[in-house]
C-alpha cells in the first residue's frame, strides 16, 4: 500500500499487494515488510495465515463530537419531510446544537470517546473531527477543545476542522452575515491555541450561499487555514467549483456536482470526499457521480460522515458496500479512497493511510480472505485485530480458517 502521493483517476485502480507477507513492527513503527521471516527475530508473532492485512483505515469526514441524538427525526423522515425542511423548522442540526450547548465538556469527551472506540473497532485509526454544533463562540471552543483532548489521550489520531459555519443559529436568523463575522472572529484564537487545522462551511440552500462561502473561506485561507466545503450535497449550487477555485484540500458530498465542477476538481487536485452513507440515509435515489469523477481524473476519497442526523453510523465497512453498489467503485478504488486518498484529504498523507517501512504501525488484520470480500459481505464487522502505533487496541473473535469463507481466495 505504498504511494508517493494521492491516487487520482485511473491510478486509483492500483493496489500494490504482497502475498505471503511479513510485517515487522518495533517501537510503534513499521520496520520491515517482506516475504520472508528469515533472519528476523521477534518477541511476539501474530499468525495472519489466510487473512487480509492492511493499513488502518482513515475516515476523513466526521462530526464525532456532539451532544444527544436525533432518533425522533426518523418518523419525520418516514413521512417524507425533507432534511432541509426539518432544519428550517428549527430541528436537524439546530436540535443537536441545543443538546451540545447544554452538555459539559467532560460529557462530550466521554461520548465522543465511545464513538471513537467503536470506529477503532471497525478498523479506523485516523479520523477527522468537525465542530459545528455550537454555533456560538463558547460551544464551538468547547467542541474543539474536546477534539484536542481526544487527540492527546485517545488511541485514535484526530484531525480537527472548524465548522462554525454549519447552520444559522436562531439568534442570528435575520442577520447571517453578523453570524459569519462572529465565527470569523474566532479564527485567531483557534490558530493560537491550535484548535483546528481546517475551516469548513455548509454551502447549501437555506444555509450559506456560494458568495458568503467564498468570502468566509477566503478570510480563513488568509489566516493560514486549509479549506474544506460541504458542497452540492442536496442542491447543486456550485460549491464544487468554489472549492477548486479556492484550492481547498477537499470538497465533500458532491451529489449535485456539475460537469464543470468535476473538471475543475481534477485540475485543482482538490480531493472529492464522497459520503454515500449520507445519501442512503437521506433516502435519495441519486448518488454522487464517482465514475465520472474517476474518469475525469479526480482524486476520490470516502468517509462515513458520522453525525447524529444525516448519517448515524461509525461503520465504515458499510460505506464500502454503498460505494461498490451505488457509486459503482471497484474494490481497488474503494481501498485507495479509504486509505491513501483519505489521508491526503486531511493533510496526513505522509503519516497515515499506507503500510510502509518507517511509518506508524497502524495495521488492521481482517477476518477476510481477500480485499474484495469486505464490500461484498455487508453490514457486519470483519475486523480481527486493530493495531495502533504498534499496540493492539481492538481484538475480536478469531476465525482460524478465513480461506473457507470464500470459494476463491
Ligand atoms: N450537511 C451538513 N452537515 C452534516 C449533517 C449534520 C447533521 O445533520 O447533524 C453532513 O455532512 O451531512
Ligand atoms: Zn459533514
From TrEMBL:
This is Imidazolonepropionase. N-formimidoyl-L-glutamate binds at residues 133, 307, 309. Keywords: Cytoplasm, Histidine metabolism, Hydrolase, Iron, Metal-binding, Zinc. Catalyzes the hydrolytic cleavage of the carbon-nitrogen bond in imidazolone-5-propanoate to yield N-formimidoyl-L-glutamate. It is the third step in the universal histidine degradation pathway. Fe(3+) binds at residues 61, 63, 230, 305. It comes from the Bacteria. It comes from Halalkalibacter kiskunsagensis. It catalyses: 4-imidazolone-5-propanoate + H2O = N-formimidoyl-L-glutamate. It is an enzyme of class 3 (hydrolase).
Amino acid at each position: 500500500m505504498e504511494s508517493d502521493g494521492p491516487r487520482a483517476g485511473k491510478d486509483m485502480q492500483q493496489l500494490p499487494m504482497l502475498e505471503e507477507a511479513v510485517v515487522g513492527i518495533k517501537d510503534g513503527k513499521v520496520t520491515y515488510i517482506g516475504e520472508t521471516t528469515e533472519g528476523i527475530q521477534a518477541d511476539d508473532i501474530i499468525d495472519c495465515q489466510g487473512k487480509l492485512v492492511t493499513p488502518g483505515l482513515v475516515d476523513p469526514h466526521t462530526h464525532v463530537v456532539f451532544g444527544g441524538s436525533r432518533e425522533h427525526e426518523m418518523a419525520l423522515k418516514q413521512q417524507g419531510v425533507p432534511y432541509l425542511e426539518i432544519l428550517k423548522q428549527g430541528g436537524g442540526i439546530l436540535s443537536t446544537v441545543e443538546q451540545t450547548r447544554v452538555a459539559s465538556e467532560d460529557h462530550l469527551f466521554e461520548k465522543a470517546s465511545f464513538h471513537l472506540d467503536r470506529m477503532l473497532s471497525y478498523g479506523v485509526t485516523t479520523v477527522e473531527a468537525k465542530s459545528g454544533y455550537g454555533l456560538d463562540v463558547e460551544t464551538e471552543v468547547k467542541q474543539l477543545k474536546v477534539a484536542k483532548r481526544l487527540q492527546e489521550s485517545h488511541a485514535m489520531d484526530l484531525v480537527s476542522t472548524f465548522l462554525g459555519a454549519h447552520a444559522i443559529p436562531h439568534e442570528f436568523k435575520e442577520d447571517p452575515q453578523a453570524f459569519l463575522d462572529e465565527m470569523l472572529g474566532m479564527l485567531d484564537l483557534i490558530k493560537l491555541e491550535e484548535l483546528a487545522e481546517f475551516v469548513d462551511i455548509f454551502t447549501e440552500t437555506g444555509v450559506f450561499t456560494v458568495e458568503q462561502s467564498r468570502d468566509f473561506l477566503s478570510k480563513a485561507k488568509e489566516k493560514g487555514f486549509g479549506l474544506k466545503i460541504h458542497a452540492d450535497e442536496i442542491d447543486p449550487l456550485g460549491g464544487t467549483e468554489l472549492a477548486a477555485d479556492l484550492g481547498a484540500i477537499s470538497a465533500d458530498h458532491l451529489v449535485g456536482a456539475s460537469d464543470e465542477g468535476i473538471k475543475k476538481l481534477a485540475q485543482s487536485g482538490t480531493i472529492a470526499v464522497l459520503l454515500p452513507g449520507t445519501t442512503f440515509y437521506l433516502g435519495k435515489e441519486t448518488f454522487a457521480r464517482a465514475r465520472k469523477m474517476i474518469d475525469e481524473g479526480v482524486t476520490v476519497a470516502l468517509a462515513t460522515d458520522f453525525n447524529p442526523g444525516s448519517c448515524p453510523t461509525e461503520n465504515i465497512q458499510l460505506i464500502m458496500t454503498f460505494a461498490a453498489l451505488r457509486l459503482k467503485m471497484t474494490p481497488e478504488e474503494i481501498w485507495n479512497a479509504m486509505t491513501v486518498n483519505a489521508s491526503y484529504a486531511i493533510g496526513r498523507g505522509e503519516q497515515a493511510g499506507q503500510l510502509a517501512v518507517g511509518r506508524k504501525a497502524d495495521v488492521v488484520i481482517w477476518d477476510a480472505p481477500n480485499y474484495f470480500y469486505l464490500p461484498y459481505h455487508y453490514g457486519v464487522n470483519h475486523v480481527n485485530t486493530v493495531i495502533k502505533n504498534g499496540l493492539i487496541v481492538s481484538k475480536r473473535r478469531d476465525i482460524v480458517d478465513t480461506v473457507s469463507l470464500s470459494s476463491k481466495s
